[in-house]
Amino acid sequence: MSQPALSGAVSALEESLGVTLLERTTRKVLLSPAGERLAVRAKAVLVEVGALLEEAEAVRAPFTGVLRLGVIPTVAPYLLPTVLRLVHDRYPHLDLQVHEEQTASLVDGLTSGRLDLLLLAVPLGVPGVVELPLFDEDFVLVTPLGHGLGGREGIPREALRKLKLLLLDEGHCLRDQALDICREAGREDAPVTTTAAGLSTLVQLVAGGLGVTLLPRTALKVETSRSTQLLTGYFANPAPTRRIALTMRTGAARGAEYEELAAALRAALRPLPVRVVDADAPTTPYATRPDASAAAAEAG
């Protein structure tokens, strides 16, 4: 749009509204106080127009166009291969765009309209957000060679009270989950001695003998295969567990598509070491784990 045309459009809007929206000088143009107030409403109008266009597109052709998916770092490397393969095979006309960010940034992106769908640990407890549960997965204890709990089954949670536990940096939901597990086990002091930005670094610190850590089962094979200096221990039933879900905005225009995608993902994720949950399962951060020996056999 040319500058004269833009100026004419703004002048016409000012005349229609009966207020001055811009303060014009020879050097710059600023929003007037009235312009600043109305700009907030204008942004809301544009968001609703975008939703209208999105809904019209969804009605015309489901599973087409852009889908902006946000994923947390402790899920992305382990589940994205399954997600991408599913989308490629089943929804070839869907333009999937993946954004890996920490939970707080993802939730902000979802509620602001920057992202369409999130894949992360729940519960979030955020108003206006619907959680579509996918599966529960257990945490396991990763230790260096020679550690007393390495390779054991039936480890009591109380063992976490005295361990030198390595955690992710602040901002990762997995760190908060690990701290919650320690508190449930009766640990009163903060177990943090060394932190890492990602699970790969965390596991290498364990291999180097700096401590032990908690890993979700979906990350175990990928992260422990990089070192021969690691052992895995399994907790007694019920093991500490996290739930992974897709989340969307309440009343999302493409909500029916997202629910169908969640159902397809549940089926695709069954080969992984997880417990797929029903669509209407209540959200819970911890679940009862099946027999420890069966879980160990599943891990191979």
Instruction: Give me the number of helical elements.
Output: 9
Succession of helices and strands: HEEHEHEHEEEHEHEHEEHEH
The CATH architecture of the largest domain comes to 3-Layer(aba) Sandwich
Overall pLDDT: 87
CATH H-tier superfamily of the largest domain: Periplasmic binding protein-like II
Taking the sheet with the most strands, its summary is: 8 strands, mixed
What is the molecular shape? elongated
The rounded distance between the terminal residues' Cα atoms is 62 Å
> Total strand count, please?
12
CATH topology description of the largest domain? D-Maltodextrin-Binding Protein, domain 2
Beta-strand content estimate: 15-25%
Integer-rounded radius of gyration: 24 Å
GO molecular function: DNA binding; DNA-binding transcription factor activity
InterPro entries: LysR_HTH_N (IPR000847), LysR_subst-bd (IPR005119), WH-like_DNA-bd_sf (IPR036388), WH_DNA-bd_sf (IPR036390)
Protein name: Probable hydrogen peroxide-inducible genes activator
Organism: Streptomyces caeruleatus
